[in-house]
Amino acid sequence: MNNIEAQKIIDRIDSMPLYLHAYAFHLNMRKERILPDDLLEIARKHHLTGAKIHVEDGETKALKTMSDAQLEAFGQKAKEYNLDLKIETSSSAANAIDEAVHIALKTRASSIRFYPRYEGHLQDVLKKVKADIQYIKETYEHTGLKFVIEQHEDLKSHELNQLVEDADFPNFSLLFDFGNMFNANELPLEAFDKMKGNITQVHMKDAVRLPEGKGFGHKASLSGEGEVPFKELVKQLICLGDEKPQVISFGLEEEVDYYAPAFRFDDEGDNPWIPYRGASETPMPTEGLDARLEKEMTDAMNQLTFVRNIAEELKQEAQAILNK
């Protein structure tokens, strides 16, 4: 840590924008034990900046099932709790974006996360994604909503960064996930380095790499127990931006047992085949369900403590450097 970084840490760490992420409660939400309203209560209780919620989280009680009046009431509750809302969808296709935008506008959310899930040769996939981005820009730029594309296991960091650079769309940027680059055959710090100019949002988690052919899958772990350089990433992300913080959202996305296969490989060539992938899902236990659901909630809260402890460590290290 140098003096410039140390000063940024001191100036920014206490107001680090932490967001509850619905995926940390994925199993509970699939069983409807936790619903979108509950996420607002949890975020408020723990003094978080906001909540990140997928349109399908909560199954029959999800945001996508709500009437306009219900969505407006949900947004009003978030406003009364002083919580920012960020909406997520698992596609870049027009119909999914239209649905997410409708929900975002009705709830007065500030941004939408998406990621592409196309099958095909890489260059064809990139063309489709570029067309989707232009649709978003032409249709929704006037709304003021921010849009982020997440690196989600199949596209590499430089490919995603180029999509943002080419879009000429000021409200469009990158969401950096702490582990998803493993599946694209990259490591966290090198992926960060290629994306850092356009990262505005983050999903924090830990994971271990799983060798698969000449690539890697990943399995998510408890934060602090995987292969992600968690503290170093937090430090570098906090320090992005000179005049003001570049990263506006750190999502608490503990997702123990989540698995994703390898998508990119050492020997893939320059136009590899990208296989179709479903939306993210963690396997539901076949037995001991109640205990697993309880553990998921405990893990989510423990991650918040873990991240706040890291923030405190960084603050103390920064103070020591500035006091030299």
Automatic annotation (TrEMBL):
Gene3D superfamilies: Divalent-metal-dependent TIM barrel enzymes. Residues 297-324 form a coiled coil. It comes from the Bacteria. Keywords: Coiled coil. It holds the Pfam family AP_endonuc_2. Residues 43-237 form the Xylose isomerase-like TIM barrel domain. Signal peptide: none annotated. The keyword Nucleotide-binding does not apply. The keyword Coiled coil applies. This is TIM barrel protein. It comes from Providencia rettgeri. The lineage of its organism: Bacteria, Pseudomonadati, Pseudomonadota, Gammaproteobacteria, Enterobacterales.
